[in-house]
Design goal:
The termini are far apart. The chain is an all-alpha fold. The protein is elongated and about 65 Å long. The longest helix is centred in the middle third of the chain and has 27 residues. About 75% of the residues lie in helices and about 0% in strands.
């Protein structure tokens, strides 16, 4: 069971298929054996981190969709933290290590996300840009 979960990167349905059993059987074993739950948890974190690294590479390459996805993730994480009254310590600590005021960083994220969503970020697109932004972009060219 542990080997199948590791091979399936913690994905229960794929592990069940490999073992020729039902996903419910996998769930029961995971509930019964903490080591299996740990494999699933570790694999889920590892899968998320691999995805985040790929997204980060696209952000570094300047891909607008990737920047938008990363900003949305950070804003959603912040919103959830506020909804549950949990302080987003990781975000704050990261900002402080970088010498950035966390409140300023949040404001910049909101501004950039708003610009991306309305396609008002220079270089992202001209559709829907305000006259002021269009004039500013024309002046920069």
């Amino acid at each position: 069971m542990a080997g199948a979960l590791e091979e399936a990167h913690g994905l229960r349905t794929i592990a069940a298929r490999a073992l020729n059993c039902s996903p419910r059987t996998i769930h029961k074993y995971i509930e019964r054996y903490p080591d299996l739950a740990e494999i699933v948890e570790y694999s889920t974190i590892e899968r998320f981190e691999r995805a985040w690294l790929k997204l980060d590479a696209k952000v570094e390459a300047g891909e607008p969709w990737a920047i938008q996805a990363a900003l949305r993730y950070e804003l959603e994480r912040e919103r959830l933290a506020q909804d549950t009254k949990v302080r987003p310590g990781d975000f704050d600590a990261h900002c402080q290590r970088a010498g950035i005021n966390p409140a300023d960083a949040r404001a910049a994220i909101r501004l950039a996300l708003s610009a991306l969503v309305t396609k008002r970020l220079p270089g992202v697109g001209g559709v829907g840009q305000s006259a002021e932004i269009q004039a500013e972009n024309a002046a920069q060219r």
